[in-house]
Write a structure and sequence with these properties.
The chain is built from 2 helices and 9 strands. By secondary structure, the protein is α+β, with helices and mostly antiparallel strands. A hairpin with a 5-residue loop joins β8 and β9. The longest helix has 13 residues.
């Protein structure tokens, strides 16, 4: 199972990339840390590693490194815009628990 990008996330990533000269993709990473043990990191990049997984949709490019992909298999990047604010969120079936802010998670 791969990593996917929702249509709303693709649209927002494409808007951000169009407004940022030099940025070619959004990188999604999973790093150690956060209150639940693992955390998501999002960042713009102009470089693609040879082993990156590339997800392209609707004019947006999202990169995921192979180590992060192990934690993101079957997950989807979404963009949520509601009264609580606008942000990227990962719908991750591998997460067994998450913190209240949604940026930190754990797996068994």
């Amino acid at each position: 199972m791969g990593f996917s990008v929702s249509s709303t996330a693709a649209q927002r990533v494409a808007e951000i990339l169009a407004a940022e000269p030099g940025a070619k993709a959004l990188r999604v990473e999973v790093l150690a840390g956060g209150c639940s043990g693992l955390q998501y990191k999002f960042g713009l990049t102009s470089e693609q590693a040879e082993d990156d997984v590339v997800v392209a949709r609707g004019g947006a490019t999202v990169l995921v490194d192979p180590v992060s992909l192990d934690f993101l298999a079957g997950a989807e990047l979404d963009f949520i815009d509601n009264l609580m604010g606008a942000h990227f969120a990962v719908k991750n079936p591998n997460a067994t628990s998450a913190c209240g802010c949604g940026t930190s998670f754990s797996v068994d």
